[in-house]
Every structure is written in C-alpha cells, then in structure tokens.
Amino acid sequence: MEPAKFQFAIDRGGTFTDVFARCPGGKVRVLKLLSEDPANYRDAPTEGIRRILQEECEEPVPRDSPIDTSRIEWIRMGTTVATNALLERKGERMALLITRGFKDLLHIGNQSRPKIFDLEIVMPEVLYEEVIEVDERVVLQQAGCQLPKSDVLEVGTGSTGERVEVWRRVDLAQLEDQLRGVLARGIRSLAVVLLHSYTWSQHEQQVGQLARTLGFLQVSLSSEVMPMIRVVPRGYTACADAYLTPCIRSYITGFRAGFQRTLKDVRVLFMQSDGGLTPMSKFNGSRAILSGPAGGVVGYAVTTHADGGTEPVIGFDMGGTSTDVSRYAGEFEHVFEATTAGITIQAPQLDINTVAAGGGSMLSFRSGLFVVGPESAGAHPGPTCYRKGQRLAP
Fold first, then answer.
1. pTM for the full model?
2. Which of 289, 293, 294, 264 is nearest to 279 (CA)?
3. In 3D, which of 325, 314, 382, 319 has the Cα closest to residue 352?
C-alpha cells in the first residue's frame, strides 16, 4: 500500500547518518550525510528529512526554520549516540548512591576473570565519579539469618512476595547535605542502588524524590531501570542509565527542536537494544546501548535470510566509530545480561558483540606502541583525509 505521507527510517551513527524515505506514491529515496557537519547543518537526521521534503515537494524548506510536519506520517530511528558515548567514555558526569557498607561493591564486581592465567589483571572501569553511602538497611526475612540483628523497625511484603525487615530507614537529612555537596561539584546525574530494592523499592523512591527536589536532572533508580535480583548487574545497569540517558535526552531535544510543534503531531519511535521500537519519551540510556546495531540486525534478518533456509547469516557492521558482529539463523537471539565496553548491562538485548574499532578510530602513540581507538575522529573534523583536521586514523 502506497503511503499518503512521507515515512522516514534513519540510522544515526557516530560518523555517518543514513536516511531511508518512502515518499507518497511509493517512491523510495536514500540519502547519506556526515553525522556532524556544523558548517552546513546542525543535525544530520533533520537535514536529511529537510532535503528530501524540499526535493520531492519542489518547495523551499528553509534550513534555519522548523520543518513543517504536516507531510510526515512517522519517523523511526536507530542511533549509536549511547553506544559511542559508552565506548569513548563521553557520557554524563555522575555519582553513585549505595547502601552504607557497600561503597566498593561495583568496583569489586563479581570477580570474574575471563583470562584466568593473565599475570596483569586490569580492573573494569566504573562510570561514576563519586560514591555516597546511604544510611539505610533492608534485609530479607529468613529464619536462619545470622547477621548481627538490629531493632526491626518494620516488616513488610515486597513486590515479589518476599518478606522483608527494615532495620534502618533512610536518613534523609544527612543525605541532603551530601547531595548538595555533589551538586556544588557540578554533578547532575545520579544512580541509586540500594540492597533488595528489586522487591522493596520504597527507600529508593524516597532518595529519588529528594534528589529531584534538589535539582538533579537525571536520577536512575535501579528498582525502576531493572528491578531484578542480583545487586551488582542491577547496579551496573543503573549506572549506565544515569551515565547515558542525559546524552540521549540532549540529542532528542535537539532533534525535536528542528520541527514545528517539536514533533508532537508525528509518531516518532526509536530502536532499542532488543530490536523493538519505543516512543521518544521512553527511550533511555540502558536500553539504547545497541540501538543502532540492533537496527542492522533486524534489517539484514529481513533482507538476507531465505524463508525456510537453514544456513545462518553473519552480520558484520563496521562504521566509523565501532564494529558490530552478530548472527541470525531464523530467529533473533536475545541475551538478558551482556558486557559492552567493560560494563555489564542487565537488560534484554540482541546478541551483538561491539568493539571500539571502526574506520575512523584514531591512532595514538602510547608506551612505545601504536594504539587504535577507542577514540574516533568522528565526522567532524574527521580523519585527515577529510581535510578538516589533522587526526590520524588507520
């Protein structure tokens, strides 16, 4: 069925942006742009839409004015904004709030050693700059519990049906002073990870409400981001969300500003790491890490795998900033815990392996050796061959 309005599918990568448009009448247009080219446009997806509308409608669409959305039916986009921010460690400055006594928990991690015979063990990096220990304690009610028991202030049933004991309520007055200090040091994003919050989220909710009242722009509660048992991967996921969601929000705000009524009349969906689509308002950092690569998997699954075929297809997606490898054998392969750029994420996502090595990965000289990446020359100024800078890329 031929569309009555324009339909846009966009892949916004770290170096290039590809725009696929289905025009009224069924005509298909494909356009490729640099993701960053400040001398010519502010935002690549917006510019791609503007050019296609102008050429197909044969009417001028000014670059410096919001685009009329009356001819647009929907926009669907996959983006590597979160992927590249994580790979290059260019996310938002953030702090971690965790139950007192567990300050180093995410630094210690799960003690896994993928290369068990290595003599030099490199600890995984953490995303947070500061740690605040929250004076609170919730314990699962168990008959054989041998922990030094405090006075039980409250006994309740968690969302999972487990019985919990509240040994210590949140000291909000003390926490407020600590949070004001973090704000004064320029940190505006928080990850809140309290023990057993997957079933008893009340304490995290109280902390979150206080933080938002004080002016924190992003507060990621582990009980909302991923309410699952196992505090370490839940904590990593909340940290990734606090680290990346501001980048996502900033990009979406800039994208919407290029259209009339900030796209309120257009159905705009973003690709998530699991290969599904979600509205702009629900697109967040922890579900966006594989947004761009997931779109590639869905695309080649539809176009390259024969109906009823038994031979698997290997996907190799090399961009300017990162390279993604995946496999499709008739159905999408999902994982519910995966490590990307050294960070373990507990969230449903397609089984994709991503490395920080692409066509624009920068060469540097460290300790007598040439090193490739993880920094990328990007689209602006780009590699030396673009003649806009002097960044050396392989």
1. 0.84
2. 264
3. 325
Report the residue count for the chain.
Answer: 394
Of 353, 351, 315, the closest CA to residue 334 belongs to: 351
Neighbours of 163 (CB within 10 A): 12
The DSSP bridge partners found for residue 314 are 327
Mean pLDDT by 10 residues, the chain (394 residues): 84 88 92 88 93 92 90 92 84 95 89 77 83 93 77 88 91 93 95 95 95 95 92 92 93 91 91 92 89 88 76 86 86 86 84 80 79 72 66 53
Based on the number of CB atoms within 10 Å of its own CB, is 5 exposed (0-12), middle (13-18) or buried (19 or more)? middle
